[in-house]
Amino acid sequence: MISWRKHYKQTLIAIGLLLSTSASFYGQDGDPKNGEKLFKANCTACHALDKQVIGPPLKGVVERVKTEGGVGRDWLHKWITDNKALRASGDKYANEIFEKYNKVEMQQFPNLSEKDIDDILAFTTNPPAPEEKKPEAAPATDASAAPADKTTTNIVIISLLAIAALLVWILIKLRQLVKLGQSEDLAGLNESRVRSFSEIYQKYHYIGKGALVILAILATYGIWNWLMWIGVYKGYKPEQPIYFSHKIHAGEQKIDCQLCHSSAKYGKVSEIPSMNVCMNCHRTISEYNANHYMEPGKDKAFYDGEIQKIYAATGWNPEKQQYTGKTQPVEWTRIHNMPDFVYFNHSQHVVAGEQAIINSFNKKNPNNKIDVVCKACHGKIDTMNVVQMANDFTMGWCIECHRTTEVDMNNGYNKEYFKNLHDKLKKQYPKDGGKITVDAIGGLECGKCHY
User: Fold this and answer.
1) How many Cβ atoms from other residues are within 10 Å of residue 414's Cβ?
2) Span 166-189, pLDDT tens digits
3) Where are the transmembrane segments (predicted)?
4) pLDDT range class, residue 24, cuts 50, 70, 90
5) What is the 3-state secondary structure (H, E, C) of 30-77?
C-alpha cells in the first residue's frame, strides 16, 4: 500500500512536470498582453502574425519550429537574442531559415529578457482576441427618414405653387398695363416724355459722355485685373493617381518633410519623391491599421487599395517579398510650378533663410504660428489630406515677403558679412534700429529672380 502511494505521488509529480514543460514550451507561461506590446515595439517592422512580410508570419511559431526543426523554447530564445551567433555555431535549422528567407539577417535583441521573450511567444501562440469596436451609429433607415423626406417634398411643392401664383399675378398686371398703354391720354404722355428725354440728353450730353468714359476706364481696369490673375491658382488641389494624405504621414505619424523631399534643403528644386522612397516604409506596411483616423467617406479598404497601387507601381510582390521587375510609371499632377523665367532656389530659403522666415511669419501671424519653414509658403501641410496651393505665389507676394523678412543677424556669418551695411542702416533708419530686411541686401534686384 505504501509502495503504491509512493509510486502514485511520483506519477503525479511527473505528470505535473510534463504539463509544466509543455506549457513552457508552447509559450503559455508568458503574458500575452505584455507580449503584444513587445511584439508591436520590436517585431512589426519585419513580421506580422498572419502573413509574410520580410520575415515569416509568427502566429503559432512555437509549434511550427517544433514541427519543422524539432526545436523548442530554448532554441527560440537563442534565435531571438542572437541569431547570428546561433547560425555561426553551425545550427542546421537556423541556417535553413536564413537561406529560406533570402539571407535577410534578423535583428538581434539582446535587450529582451527571458520573460520578455516568453511573453512574445505567448502572444504569438495565443494572441488576445481583438476588442470589438462599438458599432457606428446606423444611418437613418428608410422608415425613419420618410417623415423628413415627406416634409421636404411638401415644402418644395408649396414653394412651386407660390411661384406659379406670383407669375400669374404678374401676367395679369402686365396685361392691365398694356391695355392702359393703348389709351390716347397715355400715348400723348409717352410722346412728351420721349421728347423731354431727348432735350435733357442734348442739354447734358457732356455728363453722359463723361459717364461713358468712366465706364470704359472701369471696364479696362476690370479686364486688366482679370489678366493679372491668370496663372494664379491659390486653392488648387487636384486628385492624384495614388491617394496620399499628408495629414496621416506628416501630421499623425510626424514624418519629417525632408525624409521624402530630401533635395528641398540642399537643392534648387524639391523633387517629387520616387516610389522607392514610399517602399522604405510600405514594404512592411501593407495595410492601413490607424483606424483612429480615417477621412470622412473613406474606409480601411480604400487605404489598403492605395497601398496596393504603390506595389503595382514598383513591381513589388508582397507574398513573395521580392520585386518582379514589372513597374508602372505614376503620372502625378504637379501643383507648384514656377514659370521658366523665374529663378527660385529652395536651399537659399530652407537653409540660409530658415530661422528668418519662421520668425517673420510668426511675427505677422501670432495666432497661426509655424514650426517648420516649409509651412511659410506651402501652408500647414500636415493638416491637409489633399495638398493644395496655399498662397498666391505671385511676384507681388514674393516682394512683400522680401520687404518684411529680417535677415538673421544672430548668424555669425551674416553678422560679420553685413557689418558695414548694418552700421549704415542704423544711421539711415534710427527709428527702426537699422533693421536689415531681405530687400536691403538685394532682395528686390531683378537679376536675383529673373535670368
Assistant:
1) 17
2) 888 888 888 777 766 656 665 666
3) 155-172, 211-232
4) very low
5) CCHHHHHHHHHHHCCCCCCCCCCCCCCCCCCHHHHHHHHHCCCHHHHH
344 DSSP 8-state letter: -
Question: Domain 32-125 is classified in which CATH homologous superfamily?
Answer: Cytochrome c-like domain (1.10.760.10)
Strand pairing class (316-317; 322-323) = antiparallel
Count Cβ atoms below 10 Å from residue 34 Cβ, excluding itself. 16
Q: What is the largest CA-CA distance in the chain?
A: 144
Rounding to the nearest 10 degrees, give the CA dihedral for residues 344, 347, 350, 351: -140
Task: Report DSSP letters for 357-399, one per residue.
Answer: HHHHHHHH-TTS--SSTHHHHH--GGG-SS----S---HHHHH
Cβ–Cβ under 8 Å, residues 266 and 351:
yes
362, pLDDT greater than 90: yes
Instruction: Please give the pLDDT value at position 137.
Output: 45
**Cβ partners under 8 Å of residue 153, min gap 6:** none
Measured at the CA of 326, the angle between CA 287 and CA 301, to 5 degrees, comes to 20
Cβ neighbours of residue 278 closer than 8 Å, sequence gap 6 or more: 310, 314
Integer angstrom CA distances of residue 442 from 46, 341, 353, 413? 53, 18, 14, 17
CB 105 within 8 A of CB 98: yes
| pLDDT 10s digits, 322-353 | 899 999 999 999 999 888 899 999 998 998 88
| Amino acid, res. 345 | N
Are residues 370 and 362 in contact, defined by beta-carbon separation less than 8 angstroms?
yes
Residue 184 has what pLDDT?
60
Query: What is the grid cell recorded at 33?
Result: 498582453
* pLDDT at site 396: 92
Which pLDDT score, from 0 to 100, does residue 187 have? 60
Q: Which residues pair with 450 in a beta bridge?
A: 342
Q: What is the pLDDT of residue 53?
A: 77
- Distance CA(295)–CA(385), nearest Å, equals 8
Q: Which three cell numbers stand for residue 304?
A: 489598403
The three three-digit cell numbers of residue 13, written as one number: 509529480
Is the separation of the CB atoms in 79 and 86 below 8 Å?
yes
Distance CA 170, CA 174 (A): 6
| Cα–Cα distance, 239 to 243 (Å, whole number) | 8
- Is a pLDDT exceeding 70 seen at residue 59? yes
Enumerate the domain spans of the chain: 32-125, 202-231, 242-272+335-450, 275-331
Q: What's the whole-number mean pLDDT along residues 119-140? A: 64
Which residue, among 439, 435, 444, 369, has the nearest Cα to 408 in the 3D structure? 435
CB 75 within 8 A of CB 65: yes
